[in-house]
Structures are given as C-alpha cells and as structure tokens.
Amino acid sequence: MSYATAGWPGWLLGAVAVTALSVSELPGHGFSPATASAAPASTAAASPRGQGPLIVAHRGASGHAPENTLAAADAAAELDTAWVETDVQRTRDGELILLHDTTLNRTTDVEEVFPDRAPWRVSDFTLAEIDRLDAGSWFGPDFAGEGVPTLAEFLDRLSANDQRLLLELKSPDDYPGIEEEILAELGERGWLDEWYPGQRLVLQSFDAASVRTVHELAPRVETGFLGTPPVAEIADYAEFADQINPRHADLTAAYVESVQAVRGPHGRPLKVYTWTVNDGALATRVAELGVDGIISDVPEVVRAALAS
Ligand code: G3P
Ligand code: CA
C-alpha cells in the first residue's frame, strides 16, 4: 500500500460490492445516503437513460466567470448546476492547483508579476508565487484579484455549494505520481466516501495511462477517457474507464451506441459525455445522439435548449 492510500478505508481499495456497504459504517464519510440521493432540483446526480443528459459546467461556468476559479464554481452553483469540470496540475513545490493551460500567461497576470520567467510554466512556479497572481482581471474587472485555487480550496468550495466534480488530470505526463497525490487529497477531504461510483466524483484525462492508473489505485472511483477511440478498442478502454468523452464534432449516433453497448469496470454501460457545447441547437443535436452528459461553459443555455 502506498503512502497515499495508507489512510484510505479498505473498501475503497478493492472492488467491493456497493450494495454491501452502509455509508454510516464508513469512517469519516462526508456524503450521506440522504445527500447522495438528493441532487439539486435542476440536475441529476447520475444520467439515467430517458432523463436527458447530465449538464456539466466546463472549467466552472466559464462563460460567466474566469475559468477554473472559485468564482466559476460559484457561477455554476448560481445557475443550479451541480456538476463542475476543472483541470488539475502541480506546482514546482508539489502543490495541486487548478489551471487549464500548462503555462500561466493566458489566464493570469504572470507576465507582469514575473516578466523574466518565460515561458511561465505552471511546473516552474511555487504555490507562493502563484498566489501572487490575478486570475480574474483578464476575464473582467468584476473578477480582479480572483486567485488560482488549489485543488483543496476548490473541493471545499464545491462541498459548501453541494456540487459535484468532474476532475481532469491535465498533462499528467508532466507530473509523475500526480494520480496518487490527487487521490490522497480527495480522500483527505472526504471526496472518496461515495455512496456509489460516479455520484459525486469522476476523474478523467486525455492520457489513457493516467486514467488506468487512477482506476488501479482507486477501483471504486468512476473514470473517463477524453477522446474518441476506435470502436474496436472500446472494450480495452472499458477495463479502466467508465466514460468515453469525445469532442462533439466527433460524435455520431452509431458511435454513442457502440460505446454504450459496452460495460465498464463497474459493470454498467459506458457513458458518453461530450464537450464543449455552448449553443442550444448543438445541445439538442448531441442530446438526440444519445449522449449521457454535455459539458458546457454556459450550462443554462444547454438546459434551456433541452427543456424546449
Ligand atoms: O471536459 C472536457 C474538456 O475539459 C476537455 O478539454 O481542453 O477544455 O480541458 P479542455
Ligand atoms: Ca478540462
């Protein structure tokens, strides 16, 4: 057992039958059966077929607030969107922070604060240095001073907002061992104490090896692969991924059906979440293709389209 998994409950480390568990018997659980079954009214905790796709706020509600900030999580909450997607990376001193790009210059004022540190890679900066950056002003003056959050801060904000997390491991190849560190952080903050896999947390990546590592370290955690593997390879991905999540432009009804025909590591049909859908007509189209989830910067636009 690794240092990161040493404190985890034994049930998490094995493929224990969920029906045999009682959450009230688990140590340190922060997610009761009551809250587990009580998703916010306008969203669903899962995506049962026939109820329409689950809507996920991409990088938070990033059409309304600077991406991957606490403000973006709050903006999603204000739009009654329970599920939030975000991207995690690691600083030079080993702290987990949220940023989409592997460099800091697009979404912060790092070029002004640290003009001599090009190309401003996340992995070249300590957390203390990143804490000096403004990650909000580029989006709008209302967000001046918004910081780059740590994963811990973001998790706590989602918990306070009663939100759920689709967490992308961004460029995990650049950060050896980040899978264990992320799982340790999630475990410490109660995010692995789920009632059933995928109800509150999904980990995804474009990097299949990283997704497989997450699955091997924490078999109960729901996982997703970002991309469009050939249909002939879907069964291989289903050994470690519960979701296959393609760009919307790559979708066809036949592809969605082929993915959903395969069962994943938890014995359930694979799901398909597609991204990034910011247009009502497009949302309607991908819903008609049968996707299980729609990832959007403007979740209210998707919701309105699906409602109509
Ligand atoms: O969740 C899907 C989406 O986030 C993947 O693309 O580039 O926005 O991280 P990207
Ligand atoms: Ca992402």
Account of the 3D structure:
Helix content is 28%, strand content 13%. The protein has 308 residues and is an alpha/beta fold. Helix 7 links the parallel strand 4 (164-169) and strand 5 (201-205). Helix 3 (70-78) runs parallel beside helix 6. The protein is globular, with a radius of gyration of 19 Å. Bound molecules: SN-glycerol-3-phosphate and calcium ion (CA). SN-glycerol-3-phosphate (G3P) binds next to strand 2.
Secondary structure layout plus pairing:
Elements (H helix, E strand, L loop, with lengths): L9 H4 L19 H4 L17 E4 L12 H9 L4 E8 L5 E3 L11 H4 L13 H4 L20 H11 L2 E6 L8 H11 L12 E5 L2 H10 L4 E5 L7 H4 L5 E3 L7 H8 L12 E2 L5 H9 L4 E4 L2 H9 L1
Helix pairs in contact: 3-6, 11-12
The structure holds SN-glycerol-3-phosphate (G3P) and calcium ion (CA).
Largest sheet: 9 strands, mixed
Counting DSSP E segments of at least 2 residues, the number of strands comes to: 9
How many angstroms does the end-to-end distance come to? 51 Å
Number of domains: 1
Q: Residue share in helices?
A: 25-40%
Gross CATH architecture: Alpha-Beta Barrel
Bound molecules: SN-glycerol-3-phosphate, calcium ion
Task: List its traits.
binds SN-glycerol-3-phosphate; TIM Barrel; alpha/beta; globular; 308 residues; 9-stranded mixed β-sheet; binds calcium ion
In short:
This protein has 308 residues and is an alpha/beta fold. 28% of the residues lie in helices and 13% in strands. Strand 8 (273-274), helix 11 (280-288) and strand 9 (293-296) form a beta-alpha-beta unit.
